[in-house]
């Protein structure tokens, strides 16, 4: 029988749970399908860079399928309509897919499952996007975790299913799907997106290359020591691949364990999980856990998609979109022209490359919400419009953390100082100089605070404050007090 595998956030052939199951159940008679969902492509926070990354990954996926005698069937429209039509055209009896957990995806998948089931088709979904999904880790009172540390502790204690053998490398074959209508994988321009950023290379092969390079180049072993150094290329750069699924989280986890000289436990020894000892691997695995923590939060608390997770802070009066001063400050932040070098470097890195270092994301987000006193939703939306790894759950969780209104967020009275952050994580200013070329000739002693340079030195370095580089749009010391007062006013019990 034919089984449709509906690709979504799993654009790979290796370690693909639903695809593996479909190959086994159909003896290789799998119809690979991807639907360009118009509801997603017209979403409020769609990023051209992310669309480009997805389509590039799709093109490689199609090529990989063709090299194995198959091909990708691509349609554009409503997934419910297109999947039902394809099932009838090929005589499929079942549809397999890997689960997604965002509010939009859950609503879509529920409607698709209901309609296809009513049409007489079998619909099977699988866990693949995460290692532990929404209801697998609960507190002792059977409630979802809202604090990261106990969630992480429980996550680490649970046994893990290792990456599956690649069925196409173990004797299984794919048959060519029936001849039905399909469209070539388009590029972003074909479907109305103008990509102005330098988007990272996409595809399954690139994801695997990056993972190997991260390990072989000692990046994983040094991750705990170097991950926050903005001047180094010390992170894996795998976040876009984990988001779209050109690499599985299981492969990342197993790689970290093996690199730390531990072996993933078998299913027969579920309670024999050995803690990761090496600090680099432990810190990197923590990032995988944060990813899943935010996914289960958004699943269980969907109101956080548009609102404060912590409703107690609904009274905090962030900047209004109707205020011209707020609008001007937001525009300066978006352009990387706040006058604070580390903030400007962070936003310009994203504007140019569709990616931003995680430490820089924290600095930029805290500056927007605590120095500019602007609503976190403004920044969250802008990030989603620019990042090729823009993930609804992680982006939402991180922005609410920065704004002190989310789950397990930083306390409102702890306000990031952009100058101290800059001095600590970019001490020589190499990150700043790379992304803010106006400051290229500024000496180290002034690179974090160029406005302190004497006028003659400003002329000499071609960094004249207010002319070639903007003045600070706010004073951090003043804004810090305002931010704390803003929260105290909203919640008198916190005084």
Weakly predicted, low-confidence segments? 262-277
Average pLDDT for all residues: 92
Beta-strand residue fraction: 5-15%
Radius of gyration: 24 Å
Shape: globular
Order of helices and strands: EHEHHEHEHEHHHHHHHHHHHHHHH
Looking at this structure, what is the CATH superfamily of the largest domain? DNA Cyclobutane Dipyrimidine Photolyase, subunit A, domain 3
Q: Share of helix among residues?
A: 40-55%
Q: What structural class is derived from the secondary structure elements?
A: mainly alpha
The number of helical elements comes to: 20
Give a short account of the largest sheet. Answer: 5 strands, parallel
Distance between the termini: 66 Å
What CATH calls the topology of the largest domain is DNA Cyclobutane Dipyrimidine Photolyase, subunit A, domain 3
CATH top level of the largest domain is: Mainly Alpha
In CATH terms, what is the architecture of the largest domain?
Orthogonal Bundle
Short précis:
The protein has 495 residues and is mainly alpha-helical. The chain has 3 domains: 3-128, Rossmann fold (3-Layer(aba) Sandwich); 130-163 and 205-300, Serine Threonine Protein Phosphatase 5, Tetratricopeptide repeat; 311-494, DNA Cyclobutane Dipyrimidine Photolyase, subunit A, domain 3 (Orthogonal Bundle).
Write the layout of secondary structure elements.
Blueprint: E1 3-6, H1 17-26, E2 30-37, H2 38-41, H3 48-66, E3 73-77, H4 79-90, E4 94-98, H5 103-118, E5 122-126, H6 148-157, H7 204-216, H8 223-226, H9 239-244, H10 249-259, H11 279-300, H12 324-335, H13 341-353, H14 358-371, H15 376-386, H16 392-403, H17 418-425, H18 430-435, H19 455-460, H20 476-490
Parallel strand pairs: 1-2, 1-4, 2-3, 4-5
Helix pairs in contact: 4-5, 6-11, 10-11, 11-16, 13-14, 14-16, 15-16
């Amino acid at each position: 029988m034919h089984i449709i595998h509906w690709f979504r956030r799993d654009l790979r052939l290796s370690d693909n749970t639903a695809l593996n199951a479909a190959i086994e159940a159909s003896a290789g008679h799998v119809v690979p399908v991807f639907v360009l969902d118009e509801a997603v492509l017209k979403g409020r926070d769609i990023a051209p860079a992310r669309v480009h990354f997805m389509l590039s990954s799709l093109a490689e996926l199609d090529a990989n399928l063709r090299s194995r005698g198959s091909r990708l069937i691509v349609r554009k429209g409503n997934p419910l309509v297109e999947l039902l039509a394809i099932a009838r055209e090929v005589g499929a009896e079942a549809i397999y897919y890997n689960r997604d957990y965002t509010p939009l995806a859950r609503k879509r998948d529920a409607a698709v499952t209901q309609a296809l089931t009513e049409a007489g088709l079998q619909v099977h979904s699988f866990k693949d996007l995460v290692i532990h999904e929404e209801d697998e880790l609960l507190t002792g009172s059977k409630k979802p975790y809202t604090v990261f540390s106990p969630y992480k502790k429980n996550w680490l204690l649970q046994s893990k299913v290792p990456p599956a053998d690649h069925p196409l490398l173990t004797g299984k074959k794919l048959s060519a799907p029936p001849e039905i209508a399909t469209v070539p994988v388009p590029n972003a321009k074909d479907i109305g997106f103008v990509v102005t950023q330098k988007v990272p290379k996409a595809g399954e092969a690139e994801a695997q290359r990056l993972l190997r390079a991260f390990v072989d180049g000692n990046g994983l072993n040094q991750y705990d020591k170097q991950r926050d150094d903005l001047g180094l290329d010390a992170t894996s750069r795998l976040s876009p691949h984990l988001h779209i699924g050109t690499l599985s989280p299981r492969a990342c986890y197993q790689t970290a364990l093996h690199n730390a000289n531990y072996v993933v436990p078998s299913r027969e020894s579920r309670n024999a999980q050995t803690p990761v000892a090496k600090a680099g691997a432990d810190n990197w695995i923590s990032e995988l856990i944060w990813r899943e923590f935010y996914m289960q939060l958004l699943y269980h608390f969907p109101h956080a998609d548009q609102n404060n997770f912590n409703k107690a802070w609904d009274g905090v009066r962030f900047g209004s979109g109707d205020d011209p001063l707020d609008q001007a400050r937001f525009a300066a932040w978006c352009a990387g022209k706040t006058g604070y070098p580390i903030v400007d470097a962070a936003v310009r890195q994203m504007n140019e490359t569709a990616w931003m270092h995680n430490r820089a994301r924290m600095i930029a987000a805290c500056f927007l919400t605590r120095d500019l006193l602007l609503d976190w939703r403004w920044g969250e939306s802008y990030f989603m419009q620019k990042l090729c790894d823009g993930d609804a759950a992680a982006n939402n969780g991180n922005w609410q953390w920065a704004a002190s209104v989310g789950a397990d967020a930083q306390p409102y009275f702890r306000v990031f100082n952009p100058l101290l952050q800059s001095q600590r994580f970019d001490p020589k200013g190499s990150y700043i100089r790379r992304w803010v070329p106006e400051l290229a000739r500024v000496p180290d002693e002034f690179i974090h605070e160029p406005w302190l340079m004497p006028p003659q030195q400003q002329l000499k370095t071609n960094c004249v404050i207010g002319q070639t580089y903007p003045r600070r749009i706010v004073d951090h010391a003043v804004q810090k007090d305002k931010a704390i007062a803003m929260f105290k006013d909203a919640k008198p019990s916190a005084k």
